[in-house]
Write a structure and sequence with these properties.
This protein has 6 helices and 3 strands, in the order ααβααββαα. It has about 140 residues and is mostly helical. β2 and β3 form a beta hairpin. The model has no long low-confidence stretch (mean pLDDT about 90).
Amino acid sequence: MSRFNGMEDHLAYLIASVNRRLEEELEEKLRPDGIPIQQFRILGALTSQNGQSMGDLATQVLVESTTLTKIIDRMVADGLVYRAPDPKDRRKVLICLATKGIALHERLGGLVGDQQRQIIKRLENGKAEELQKLLLDLVRVQA
């Protein structure tokens, strides 16, 4: 059993610190286009699977449902997404990409790819792949 001498010895702290730094880097790149990182992640999630329920989308982009509603309202007003009835259950609403949202995600999508390549470059000799596997293991344990 190891002793914890400082915050740097806590894995949760290190993971949170890396996450914060990566989010700050991406936010800086998105800032000129006025797109908050949460909106960018929503566009990405909908690009992967268009027409998602609010609950599924909230889980996928790691945003509380009440916060997501406000973000989606803004994105609808900006013409990036729209609400549509679920064809399987007309009482439910799905969030779908609008043409403007698709174009924006295509234009900005390279930013995430650039960030991914920089991380892989920093982690040499297959360490990025190893780190990804370890983090996926942690995510699965938490689920």
